[in-house]
Amino acid sequence: MGETEGKKDEADYKRLQTFPLVRHSDMPEEMRVETMELCVTACEKFSNNNESAAKMIKETMDKKFGSSWHVVIGEGFGFEITHEVKNLLYLYFGGTLAVCVWKCS
Amino acid sequence: CLLFLFFFQSLNMGRGTRKRDEDSGTEVGEGTDEWSQSKTTVRPPDQLELTDAELKEEFTRILTANNPHAPQNIVRYSFKEGTYKLIGFVNQLAVHFSQVGNLIPKDSDEGRRQNYRDEMAAGSQESVKVVLSDTENLEEDEEPKEAEAEAEAEAEAETGSQIDVPTVEAVETVPEEELMTPRQPKERKLTNKFNFSERASQTFNNLLRDRDCQMEPPPRTNFSATANQWEIYDAYMEELEKQEKTKEKEKAKTPVAKKSGKMAMRKLTSMESQSDDITKVTQAAKIVERMVNQNTYDDVAQDFKYYEDAADEYRDQEGTLLPLWKFQNDKAKHLAVTALCWNPKYKDLFAVGHGSYDFMKQSRGMLLLYSMKNPSFPEYTFSSDSGIMCLDMHMDHPYLVVVGHYDGNVAIYNLKKPQTQPSFRSTAKSGKHTDPVWQVKWEKYDDMDHNLNFFSVSSDGRIVSWTLVKSELVHTDVIKLKVEGSTTEVPEGLQLHTVGCGTAFDFHKEINYMFLVGTEEGKIYKCSKSYSSQFLDTYDAHNMAVDAVTWNPYHAKVFMSCSSDWTVKIWDHTIKTPMFIYDLNSAVGDVAWSPYSSTVFAAVTTDGKAHVFDLAVNKYEAICNQPVVAKKKNKITHVQFNPIYPIIIIGDDRGHVTCLKLSPNLRKMPKEKKGQEVQKGPAVEIAKLDKLLNLVREVKT
Description:
Chain A: It comes from Homo sapiens. The complex is a heterodimer. By secondary structure, chain A is α+β, with helices and mostly antiparallel strands. Chain A has three helices and five strands, in the order H-E-H-H-E-E-E-E. In chain A, strand 4 and strand 5 form a beta hairpin. In chain A, helix 2 runs antiparallel to helix 3. The longest helix of chain A is centred in the middle third of the chain and has 17 residues. Chain A is globular, with a radius of gyration of 15 Å. The relative contact order of chain A is 0.21. Chain B is an alpha+beta fold. Chain B has a domain of 365 residues: Methylamine Dehydrogenase, Chain H (7 Propeller), CATH 2.130.10.10. Chain B contains twelve helices and 33 strands. In chain B, the strands form nine sheets. A four-stranded antiparallel sheet of chain B has the order 4-33-32-31, with helices on one face. A four-stranded antiparallel sheet of chain B has the order 5-6-7-8, with no helix packed on it. A four-stranded antiparallel sheet of chain B has the order 9-10-11-12, with no helix packed on it. In chain B, helix 5 packs across helix 7 and helix 8 packs across helix 9. The termini of chain B are far apart. Strand 3 of chain A pairs antiparallel with strand 3 of chain B.
């Protein structure tokens, strides 16, 4: 009984947590929204390949906002980065992924 | 090396060669492709002219391998035989042309050697050196390298050179060849010597120059975080909770929500309690304000309660006015006091109407209610677009204040309601006055349906009765003032009237239907509510506009009027001439009977003086005549007695209201006689005034 509930909970959780959850960002509103959408698109497109997703995000960001973007996608990692101000977005996505996008040239 | 040998032998060399040169092309054409090409003969100008026979003559040429110039008769001494012998074998070889080629077969030894050299050169030497090197250098280079080459290859090359006849000649061309080969690109593509040419030119290099500047790097900050599954999970759960909460809030906001009704109710009550808190604070603030005022105006309050002018005893028949509080408000600055009215229930509360008497300077109006307990700030404040000209408070409903505006409107303010707009207001549709409303008064008695009603008088000549029916004002024209004798007949039989401009009116205290109207023309009409076209009586009272008309509170027959013609007149309404006339040397703004004595009244004049009369004491002049406003410029506009305390309030045209205490002489009661109880009550007061009037009547009759 408890197990099924647990599964159900998990399913619920997965179902509910599809939205991106911005943990930290100092980007301007417009840029933040765009980046967020890009992250969602990339993570959905390469749902089983974080590397590709990160590559896609990085390359798109380079094109859109100038070079030297860095992207980290993973389920568990710690980081300490130096970034240009107004160019950082750290968000959770899909309940299990953390995406950190920043610019530093 | 390639060698070409040609032997030509002809029988007739001179003509033969020429002929061959000439016809070589055409002969071939004639023989094979006659059909394809038309014959064109190109003749040189110096061609021999030959006859046909000559041309047809055949010459036979035989190409043989024998050298025609070779000697046929070479005789050499034979040592073997000891004699000269003819040598039969003659070398037929003759060299006409010799050319050393620079193409080397790849497979040949020399070709291989050359390749090897190139590789070595590319590997060890810099290209620049190769380019710059001389032919001699190259020759020198070549030889050691050749020496280095394997012994076998060298041996082979030497044996191979036996075949080449002109080896010695070839040496001359070697430098050329050697010059060319190192220049070849590394892919060992041997250049075609026949059409390969090389060109080069040198240009100036542009000068290089350094230029730099330093700029601030884009600002950076550090950011660090750790992402792991439990943190992500927690973050999402938190977010979800938040979302649910906001949803709940939205539900709570909609009144339809049933399930969350209790929650909503709780929230609502908390909201209410919040707003309650504010009112609690205001209550507390009010109390503190009162306390502060009580402290500040303690001496004034003491004076109000206990001070009696001791000098009055010695002055005999004269009294003074002691100024107490002064009421003023910044918002009502420069707005004249146009109306004063004590509240019938709360004796310390009075209403002040602000507006302007200046026709040219009309602006906004204000209704302020002050309490003597708080002289610093009004209890209630109402603003209006048009100036207030008059006001009245209802006897039984002391929270209802009716005001008349300069623009002809009447409005009712309800002090119980917190709104700043009047509860009722007349409109152009509902019969508002077309001229300033000069006086409004509540009717003491409600009409048959117990609806509240009041009267108003205006310069447009109408006296209107207003009834409060539910939520609107219903108006009835009671009377239209017509100037007597001004009726003019026009041909159609219509009558035109000049309207009288009402400025003041007062209801009779006992006779319900009767009232008096003062006009701008100076006349006073006695009217009845039942007759709208007729006056009961007309008094030629004044020469200028009547400012106030008021019945005596005790004596039913007596009324008083004042006017800008400097006079105050006291009348018996049954007699057309005034009983007493007092000239005050300035336009009289207002008069008021005292509430405690039938013979005491106060009048204020525009020169800033207040006059208090007691007819019982002095029939001829005022017993108090005192300037009460600071500046002479200030005109006093209105005066009112407090219903119970011995004080009056005086308003001036600067918006100030001054409260003054009447000294004992001004409210002297009949002296107590020994053993006799002093009679009190209306009867005594009536008798007192009657006694006076009788004196006058006797004189008159």
